[in-house]
Design brief:
The chain is built from 4 helices and 12 strands, in the order H-H-H-H-E-E-E-E-E-E-E-E-E-E-E-E. By secondary structure, it is an alpha+beta fold. The protein has a domain of about 150 residues: Rod shape-determining protein MreC, domain 1 (Thrombin, subunit H), CATH 2.40.10.
Amino acid sequence: MFDPNASEYTNPVSPLSREGPKMQLFVARHRPFFMLLGVLVAQLLLLSFQITRNHNVRLMQVWAVAVFSPMERSLNRIVRASTLSWRTLHGLWRAREENQELQVQLVEARTRVEQLSGQAAETQRLRALLDFKNHLPFQSVAAEVIAASPGENSNAVFIDKGSDWGLTPDLAVTTPVGIVGKIVAVFSHTAQVLLITDPGSGVGCILEHNRAQGVVKGGGQNLCQIHYVMNEETIADGEAVLTSGLDQIYPKGLPIGTVVQTRDGNIYKTIIVKPAAELNRLETVLVIKR
């Protein structure tokens, strides 16, 4: 007969509650084995603390060293590699800073060298000008070129001396290597100089070896041209051209330039002359007083 209060229906046993007694039963059956295993482990640990090897090193320490030594070596290698990397990066950063400092010092040294070179060149130029001034049999005034007339081929310059220094128009202007031009306008503290390369200029000239005479006028492109020399004259390239003094402006014997090209014309030769002075790089000149 069916009884609803029967225990097999009111208290069912779960699967987990069945596994617990099985594990307890297994431990209870093999309890002596587990006790023996625990005793053996304990004895082994005690023996490892008591037994010593070479140099009185305990066996436990030997085991500990054997277990942790690979880890320690790996960690040591990692630390060394990190330290080396840091030192390398720090060295590179320091080298970069030193390189930048050296570059700055190099630029400053080059600038200083250029300044000293410029000062040396200026000193040499002024010394040559002073020596030339002392050997001239005429009274002269040194002047600085302060400006040039606008244009690619400038044919006039301005100097920093004027009527306050007793300058007047039609005074010759020269350098130690060759003549420059003549003064065409005078102001209180400045003066305008017309260069010999200007078509409106004119300089009485004489060829050094041929002794033929003519007039030098501006020919454009920083060159000059000698006029009124007959085709019969024999003139070689490279011959020096000097002032003749016949124009009553330039003293006789001053260098004008050298012949670079000659060709015959209808009556007169066409003679191209390169000025001796670098007219596009003038800095200091001498004004010759009468």
